Amino acid sequence: MATLLFPTRGLVNIFGYDVVSEADKVRKIISYLPEEAGAYRNLSGYEYLRIIAQIYFKSRMDVEEAVEEAVKISGLGERIHDKVKHYSKGMKRRLQIARVFMVKPKLAILDEPTSGLDVAHALHVRKLIIDFASKNGVTVIVSSHNMLEVEHVCSRVALIHKGLILDIGEPRELKEKYGAESLEEVFIKVVGYDLAY
Amino acid sequence: MIWRIKPLVEKEIKDMLRDPRIYIGIISTIIILPLMGAIFQVSFQSSISSVESATIVLVDFDNTDLSKDFLKFLADKKLNIEKIEGKTLGECLEAAREMEAAALIAIPEGFASKIQSCEGVNVSIYYIVNSVSTSSTLTYTGIENVVSEYSQRLSDDILTGLAPNVDPEVLKNPIKLKSITVFKGVEIEAHPGAIFSSMMMTVIISVLTPFMLTIFIAQIAATATAVENEEKTLETLLTLPVSRFEILLAKLFGSSVIAILYGGFYLVGFYFYMRSFTFGLYENFSMPIPISPTIESFIVTGILVILSMIFVTSLGVLVGALSSDVRIANSFIGYLTMPIMIPAMFLMFTDIQVLPLPIQAIIYALPTSYPLIAVKSMILGELPPVAVCGILYSLTVTLLVIYVAAKLLTPEKLLTLQYKLMIRRKKKIRFALFRK
User: CB-based contact (8 Å) between A86 and chain B?
Assistant: First the structure.
C-alpha cells in the first residue's frame, strides 16, 4: 500500500490509483510511517520537517503553513530546533507523526505507531492520531499488534493472520459477534492459539 | 522537478557536512598534509644543521704546507674540524670514536710530494656510523663533497701550472654540452630530464586531483546512501512523491558539492605539503613550458570529469544501497577504489601506449581513466582521439550504472540483495571459523 513492495497477487487501489502501475500518483496522496522510521540525525527536527514539506508543496506559503502545523502536532516546542540525534525515541516518533500529518494526506499509513514508546509518549501519539483523523477527515490505517491500542484508536478493524483478512468490522461489532470482552479476545478466537507463528 | 530536487540536495549537503565521519575527513586533509610537510622540513633542516655541528677528526701524517692548506680549506668550510696526533691509524680511530666524531680523515705521508709529482694520492675517510638516519647520510655526503671540492681546486692549480694560458676548465671538459629540447615543435634550452622533472609535478597534481575527487565522491555517495539504510530513512524517502531518478540526482549533486569542497581543501593542503617538501624551491621546478591547453581539451576534460563523477556517484549509491551500514559500504568502496587507483598510478608515471595490451585494455575499460588521460594530454596541449571517444563510452557506461542504480532503489530488491549478501557473509565467517 505504501508503494514499497510488490503485491504477491491481487490488486491494491488507493483512491482509484493502482499502487504498482500508478505508484507516483499514489505517493502524492499517501503518507507513510514505517515501524522503524528514522530522521536525518544531523538535521534539526525543524529542518527535517521543512525539507519534507518542500517536497510536497511548491508554494512557500504552503510550506510555512505545513511546517507550522507540524511543529504544533509534534508538541516538541523549542526542542524542534535541536538536532534529531539528541531526541529520545518518543520525540523522534512524534516528529515522524507530525511529518506524516503535516502533508495533509488522503491516506496515512502508520505501522506500529507506538511501538517501543513509554506510556506518556504512546498516549500522546494515540491522541494525535484520533484528533487528526476526526478533525481533517483523513483515512488513517494503523497496523498494530497492540489490540488495546487498536480498540482505542480505530473505528474499523481488519484481523489479519498469515497474510489473510479473517474478519473485518467495527470493534464493537466484532466483540459482539465473537462474544468477547476485548479485541485481544476476538483475535484469539478468530485465529486460535498459534504461538509457533 | 527542480523544486523537488532542491530540498533533497539541501538535505544531502546539510546531513553530510554535519556528519563527523565526513567533515573530519575533509578538514584533516588541510591539517595532515601541511603537517606531514612540516615534519619532513623539520627533519631535513635538522639534518642539514647536523652536518655543520658534526665533528670531523683529521690526522696529518704528512705535515707539509699542502696538508696544512687542506686542513685550512676544511676549516674555512665551517666544518667542525679537530686535529689529532697519533702514531698509528688505529690509535687515531679509537680517539675519533671516543670523541663521537662523524668521520676521520687521514692525510697520508707523502701527500704533498705525490700531488706535486702528479702521481695522485689516496686520502682515506673513515665514516663512524652510530645510527642509521637521513641526517647521518647528509653528514657523510657533506664531508665527501668538501674533500672533492679541494681536489678540484688542486686539479685547477696543477693545470694552471702546466698550461698557464689555458682555462683549466677547458682542459678538463674540452666539449661543453648545450642541451636544447624540441618539445612539441618548440625549442627549449634545457635537458629533457629537467623539463620532465618540471612537468612531473604538474602532471602528478593534475592527475592526482581528479583521482582523489573520484575516490572521495564514491565514498561520499556510498556513505550518504548507507546512512539512509543505517538510520532507517531510506524506507520513508522511497515513499515520498519523488522519483528514483530525482533521489539519485540529489545524491549526485550533494556528493559532488562535498567532493568539490574536499578537492579544494585537498589542493590547499597538498600545495602547502609540496611547499614544505621543496623548501621554497618549488618555483625552480616550474620551468615555463611554452605550451598552453586548448579550449577544446579543457571542454573534453571537463565533460569527462563530470561523467566520471556521475559514474562513481551512481556506483557509490549502488554500493551504499546494498550495504546495511556505513562500515560495510566503506569496505566495499575500498575494494572498488583499487581498479581506479591502479590506472591512476600508471598514468601518473608512464605513457599509456608503452604499457602491455591487457593493462591498456583495463585502463580503457574504466570510465574513471578517461579524465586522467584527458587531463594529462591537456597539459601537453593535446586532445587525443581516445579522450573524445571516451566521452561516448563513459556516457554509455554511466547511463547503464544510473539505470541499474535507479532500478535497484526499490526496497524489495534492496532487501533481497542485502539479505543474500548477509547470508554470503555469514557463510564465509562460518567457513573461516570451521577451518580454524
Answer: no
